[in-house]
Write a structure and sequence with these properties.
Its EC number is 2.6.1.52. Pfam families: Aminotran_5 (PF00266). It is found in: Cytoplasm. Homodimer. This protein is of the alpha/beta class. It has two domains: 243 residues, 3-Layer(aba) Sandwich (Aspartate Aminotransferase, domain 2), CATH 3.40.640; 104 residues, Aspartate Aminotransferase, domain 1 (Alpha-Beta Complex). The chain has nine helices and 16 strands. The chain has a seven-stranded mixed β-sheet with strand order 2-10-9-8-5-3-4. It has a three-stranded antiparallel β-sheet with strand order 13-14-16, with helices on one face. The structure holds pyridoxal-5'-phosphate. Pyridoxal-5'-phosphate binds next to helix 3.
Length: 369
């Protein structure tokens, strides 16, 4: 069976090998007589799944020992509240606004932080560019600085995380990496906390990953729900309440799939990164040489994961999408705030999917130009 290529921005395609393994183990996990969804989260079977997933993720993303890995619920949107409830200490929080997601995070933080300061914004450019870090107006004594490392809607990505100390700020950096987690290595020396929903690159919706430096734990505001207090979650190894067991299991299978990837001499995340660079270059290269399609994001911050593009003649959008669906190219419609198309090229999208998309785009252009 040949599955279509699914370009969804999220929930998104999951590697076929992972889906097949999960299907094979659905009714009976490793001879236990139970499926993973039916197991006690405190039983030895699930504890083994959990410990393996955590260890594999630590290896995969080279997470240093001073960081704790938390498997939570609530998604990226809940983290917009959970982060300020845990880290703001009722002081000023700095925001770098580079698109719809960081804008949304900023708005939610207004409820919890004593003051929210916009240190930089790409709004003037309609979020087609990231302001140069040298121009950011960082506050003195901020409790943290928030940014979104990949803006899923606007297709804008940080290709290097800022070194806040070099920019004159002592604040920890908080990164929303929901849509580029595990697509590239993370420079943990520049990060205080990173969070992401699983449904873009790690597995099903319902699991939220938080990686937090230990010294940031234990400062939650009194209003913070216990189940969302990072110190409590860390102390209970993500089992203060029932964790999203199915999500952890599928993410665990995905981590193992990622660890098996090879590209030349590169393995794991390095292999994945090479492949993601190649896929994105191929699609941007095609769009840029075309008179028919256009991507408006500045080349220095174009996302490898989410590639929005417009047809110069917007009247052809519906025909483009219908033809794509017929050819097994799914979920290419752009976000309503940007319009046009969006091709999400997460880890599970092979180069063949990108080639199939380009072949279709070329054919469509030839018919309609
Ligand atoms: C998808 C996404 C979110 C939202 O995640 P939910 O699971 O819907 O809460 C947050 N931030 C970014 C960057 C995203 O791509």
């Amino acid at each position: 069976m040949n599955r279509p290529f699914n370009f969804s921005a999220g929930p998104a395609a999951i590697p076929e090998e992972v889906l097949r393994q999960a299907a094979a183990e659905m009714l009976d996990w490793h001879g236990s007589g139970m499926g993973v969804m039916e197991m006690s989260h405190r039983g030895k079977e699930f504890i083994a799944i959990y410990e393996q997933a955590e260890a594999d993720l630590r290896e995969l993303l080279a997470v240093p020992p001073e960081f704790r890995i938390l498997f939570m619920q609530g998604g990226g949107v809940a983290e917009n509240a959970i982060v300020p409830m845990n880290l703001s200490r009722a002081a000023t929080v700095d925001f770098v606004v580079t698109g719809a997601w960081s804008q949304k995070s900023r708005k939610e933080a207004l409820k919890y932080a004593a003051e929210v300061h916009t240190a930089a914004s790409g709004e003037d450019s309609h979020f087609t560019s990231i302001p140069d870090p040298a121009s950011w107006q960082l506050s003195r004594g901020a409790s943290y600085v928030h940014l979104c490392s990949n803006e899923t809607i606007h297709g804008v990505e940080f290709h290097e995380l800022p070194d806040l100390r070099a920019l004159g700020s002592d604040a920890p950096l908080v990164v929303d990496f929901s849509s580029n987690v595990a697509s590239r290595p993370v420079d943990w020396s520049r990060v205080g906390l990173a969070f992401g929903g699983a449904q873009k690159n790690l597995g099903p919706a319902g699991l939220t990953l938080v990686v937090v430096r230990e010294d940031l734990l234990g400062h939650a505001l009194p209003i913070c729900p216990s189940a969302f207090d990072y110190a409590i979650v860390a102390e209970h190894r993500s089992m203060y309440n029932t964790p999203p067991t199915w999500g952890i299991y599928i993410a665990g299978l995905t981590f193992q799939w990622l660890l098996r990837q090879r590209e030349g001499e590169a393995t794991g995340i390095a292999a994945m990164e090479r492949r993601n660079i190649a896929k994105a270059e191929r699609l941007y290269g095609y769009i840029d040489q075309s008179q028919f399609y256009v991507n408006q994001v500045a080349p220095h911050c174009r996302s490898r994961m989410n590639i929005p593009f417009l047809l110069r003649d917007e009247a052809r959008n519906d025909a483009f999408l219908a033809g794509a669906r017929e050819r097994g190219l799914l979920q290419l419609k752009g976000h309503k705030s940007v319009g046009g198309m969006r091709a999400s090229l997460y880890n599970a999208m092979p180069m063949e999917g990108v080639e199939a998309l380009i072949a279709y785009m070329r054919e469509f252009e030839q018919h309609h130009a």
